[in-house]
């Protein structure tokens, strides 16, 4: 038997995603379209090479980190893929965090380079001098406030670059978790993980092809958005529309009308906002063949109303920063409203009971664990949390699920959000799904609240629809509505009407903030 050589392991994720398109003759095809125009696969290749050369000129070596806090423009894939081609480790971060969060991430990652959009630079200025390992600051935009501009630095670089001799099992990029609880954790991903998400999920489940046009309202810094807007289209030679600003209903509907994306990727909160806006293009005014949802369980009512309004199905699924993309999903022709669907082939799922035993039968709630080839290898510098989450081949999701007799998994809530009412687990998601079906409710979050005896009962925070008068009579009406839908003990004992729910930048409801505000 021939020996295994290191050369067999040579692999670079950026080269794979770019060169497969050039070799297939797609060099002139638009890869990305942003506010400044269209960029072909050949344009992208040149830009990526120039950024790789720029990093090497600045003395950045393999495995050293490049923190990216950037809006979704052509500069984002340029820097992400350019860093990977150079063998450096890009760390795209959430663009809606606090100055303290960025201070922590620069310290935690020991980044040598920061690339930041000019609109986001102010959040870094108070502490940028506190990081002795941070040697280069580059600004994407027109005003660098004294720092070098990315456009100027790229001009002086050759558009061919040597690819670093990275291997399949090398550290490729990090993503910080969205921090629904506590400090963000840097999930470390390998070079093979990007293309695996396309091969396992996007190509078989979405049927993504070269002639698709993709638009992800979820931003590229988010694991979900990174697959939607970069990995998946590049894996097959499709085209991506990038939106630099916030994905508000007006901007999103304008892109759907004008750029005619065929695959739209959203989150439940946005689907609710799109339907409430009255601007959503109907059949004939759009080119969508498919929409997807992740980040939070999609209520069955939103699925139904979006299909009625547009004629398009939403495939709800579950993914995570740790697993990089969706590993549990509904499929075209096999959609279970209110559920996350079945395991994506290539991933194994199991439910684990509180005592650690594996649940074999249907109908019993357990902690969802997943095994598959895209799992992060650890959280950077967080040994204890790594050991809690990455247990051998299994990754603990932190989500409670129920599997029915057909093998379909339904989300029951985050493990730290579960309520025990009268000794019985109550899923906040189930109560929320019932409440949101009420015609006067726009959004809702349910948390546990102690009654006068200190016993935990459900409390609902409700965002009403526009123009709805909120009073005690409406609260009583909603309680009665839920009692008619669910088992008696599950109805919300208290209802508080609020203007908006606290959320992470990726659209997940931060129920802990509602609990803490009690």
**Helix segment count?**
14
The third-level CATH topology of the largest domain is: Rossmann fold
The major pleated sheet works out as:
9 strands, mixed
CATH architecture verdict of the largest domain: 3-Layer(aba) Sandwich
pLDDT average, as an integer? 94
Describe the protein's architecture and organization.
This protein is α/β, with parallel strands linked by helices and 518 residues long. It folds into 3 domains: 41-190, Rossmann fold; 194-415, ANL, N-terminal domain (Rossmann fold, 3-Layer(aba) Sandwich), CATH 3.40.50; 418-516, ANL, C-terminal domain (GMP Synthetase, Chain A, domain 3), CATH 3.30.300. The protein is 29% helix and 25% strand. It is built from 14 helices and 27 strands. The strands form 6 sheets. It has a 9-stranded mixed beta sheet. Strands 17, 18, 19, 20, 21 and 22 form a 6-stranded antiparallel beta sheet that branches. The N and C termini lie far apart (66 Å).
Topology at a glance:
Elements: H1 13-23, E1 30-34, E2 37-40, H2 41-57, E3 65-69, H3 75-85, E4 89-92, H4 99-109, E5 113-117, E6 136-140, E7 148-149, H5 150-155, E8 171-176, E9 186-190, H6 193-206, E10 213-216, H7 223-236, E11 239-241, H8 249-258, E12 263-266, H9 268-277, E13 290-293, H10 300-310, E14 314-319, E15 326-329, E16 342-343, E17 348-352, E18 358-359, E19 365-371, H11 383-389, E20 390-391, E21 394-403, E22 409-414, E23 419-421, E24 424-426, H12 428-435, E25 441-450, E26 456-464, H13 472-485, E27 494-497, H14 511-516
Parallel strand pairs: 1-11, 3-4, 3-5, 5-6, 6-7, 10-11, 10-12, 12-13, 13-14, 26-27
Antiparallel strand pairs: 1-2, 8-9, 14-15, 15-16, 17-18, 17-19, 19-21, 20-21, 21-22, 23-24, 25-26
Helix pairs in contact: 1-2, 1-7, 2-3, 6-7, 8-9, 9-10
């Amino acid at each position: 038997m021939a020996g295994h050589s290191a050369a067999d392991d040579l692999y670079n994720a950026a080269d794979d995603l770019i060169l497969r398109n050039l070799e297939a003759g797609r060099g002139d095809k638009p890869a990305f379209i942003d506010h400044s125009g269209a960029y072909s696969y050949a344009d992208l290749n040149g830009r990526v090479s120039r950024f790789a050369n720029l990093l090497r000129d600045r003395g950045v070596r393999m495995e050293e980190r490049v923190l990216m806090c950037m809006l979704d423009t052509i500069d984002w894939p340029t820097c992400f893929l350019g860093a990977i081609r150079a063998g450096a480790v890009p760390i795209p971060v959430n663009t809606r965090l606090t100055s303290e969060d960025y201070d922590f991430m620069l310290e935690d990652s020991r980044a040598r380079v920061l690339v930041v959009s000019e609109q986001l630079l102010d959040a870094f200025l108070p502490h940028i001098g506190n990081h002795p390992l941070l040697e280069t600051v580059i600004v994407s935009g027109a005003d660098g406030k004294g720092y070098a501009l990315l456009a100027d630095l790229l001009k002086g670089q050759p558009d061919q670059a040597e690819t670093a001799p990275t291997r399949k099992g090398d550290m490729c990029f990090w993503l910080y978790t969205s921090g629904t609880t506590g400090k963000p954790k840097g999930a470390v991903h390998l070079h093979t993980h990007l293309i695996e998400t396309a091969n396992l999920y996007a190509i078989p489940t979405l049927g993504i092809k070269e002639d698709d046009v993709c638009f992800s309202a979820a931003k590229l810094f988010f694991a979900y958005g990174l697959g939607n807007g970069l990995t998946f289209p590049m894996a097959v030679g499709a085209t991506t529309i990038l939106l630099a600003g916030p994905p508000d209903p007006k901007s999103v509907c304008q892109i759907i009308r004008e750029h005619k994306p065929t695959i739209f990727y959203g989150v439940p909160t946005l689907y609710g906002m799109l339907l409430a806006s009255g601007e959503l293009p109907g059949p004939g005014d759009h080119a969508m063949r498919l929409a997807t949802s992740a980040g939070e369980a999609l209520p069955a009512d939103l699925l139904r109303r979006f299909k009625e309004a547009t004629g398009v199905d939403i495939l709800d699924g579950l993914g995570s920063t740790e697993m990089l993309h969706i590993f549990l999903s509904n499929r075209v022709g096999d959609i279970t409203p209110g559920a996350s669907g079945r395991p994506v082939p290539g991933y194994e799922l199991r439910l684990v009971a509180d005592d650690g035993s594996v649940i074999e039968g249907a109908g019993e709630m357990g902690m969802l664990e997943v095994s598959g080839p895209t799992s992060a290898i650890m959280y950077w510098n967080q040994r204890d949390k790594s050991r809690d989450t990455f247990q051998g081949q299994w990754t603990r999701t932190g989500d409670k699920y129920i599997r029915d007799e057909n093998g379909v998994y339904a989300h029951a809530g985050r493990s730290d959000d579960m309520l025990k009412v009268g000794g019985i687990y109550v899923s906040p998601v189930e109560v929320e799904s019932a409440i949101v079906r009420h015609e006067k409710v726009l959004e809702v979050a349910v948390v546990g609240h102690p009654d006068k005896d200190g016993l935990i009962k459900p409390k609902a925070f409700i965002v009403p629809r526009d123009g709805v008068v909120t009073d005690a009579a409406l609260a009583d009406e909603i309680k009665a509505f839920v009692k008619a839908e669910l088992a008696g003990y599950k109805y919300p004992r208290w209802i508080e009407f609020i203007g908006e729910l606290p959320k992470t930048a990726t659209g997940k409801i931060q129920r802990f903030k509602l609990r803490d505000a009690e």
